[in-house]
């Protein structure tokens, strides 16, 4: 099968947030898995650096960089006017020898470009949003900073695709509320690289105190402030916050300064440590160094951090929402607490840190859950069946 995966962003840049970086990692792994299954896969992303080759072979698939938009890093809002041009470029590209059997759009801008490209063809479109503006607005409130046109364009996109892929049950419900028929929504969670994220291996250095690890960008809605407030109830433990800009830039970062001032006001400054950005290939060592990984974002569709932590054998305490609620089995692989309930969060962390046997049992169950239900092989297999289904619907029946 010929598969075209479309992401209108360029590779991760200084403008890219954690979602965009995670989206690129997701697409790359799906492409490699599908190519390994014998499919002819091509990935399309925006070319913002003229020095990069237009076509590169990566992991068994072709990566094509589309020469559309500014030749510099650009935020999502700046890419919206270029969607029609991106779609026309794809349409012309697919009018030659290579024509996809199915197109899979990623993120809302990539989906719009994909739908534009196949508008006058019979090529089916599958769409993964990775996040939904209406859901982010509901959970983040004033912290939501998406482009104003995003939500109406996402609604329009749901009417242009053959099937939408949700990454958690909350997203399934949201897509149906947006007007999609339930039969047009498939739940396919993201996978975890269990060859990289596993319990055995090096761990980042630490002192004798219990360690709580939080991973995520330093921005409103990521929940680090909830954890800092909860530390008053935890006792003698350290909270390590990984994410944001590189460590040497933290002093000039507004959110990092705000979190440190918050820790000072609550009397836990000596317990809170910000380490800045950590390369994804080094994250396993940080997960292994923790006694508990805390996942407290106000919005999370994929629950990637909770899954990576569980794959490393670390129990998770997380807010019962989105992908986290799907990944973490309460009282089996960790603990789920009501979103925003700082008191329950602090008490739960304190009790779990004091329960060595419980953490050991949760960690073992977490590894088993990821290896059984959240591998990239399982994700690719589900997408493969989905592609076959939508292609079969569009293909004319022969006499």
UniProtKB/TrEMBL annotation:
The keyword Glycosyltransferase applies. Keywords: Glycosyltransferase, Transferase. Residues 22-195 form the Glycosyltransferase subfamily 4-like N-terminal domain. InterPro entries: Glyco_trans_1, Glyco_trans_4-like_N, Glycosyltransferase_grp1. It comes from the Bacteria. The keyword Glycoprotein does not apply. GO terms for biological process: carbohydrate derivative biosynthetic process. Residues 206-357 form the Glycosyl transferase family domain. Transmembrane segments: none annotated. One of its GO terms (molecular function) is glycosyltransferase activity. This is Glycosyl transferase family 1. It comes from Micromonospora rosaria.
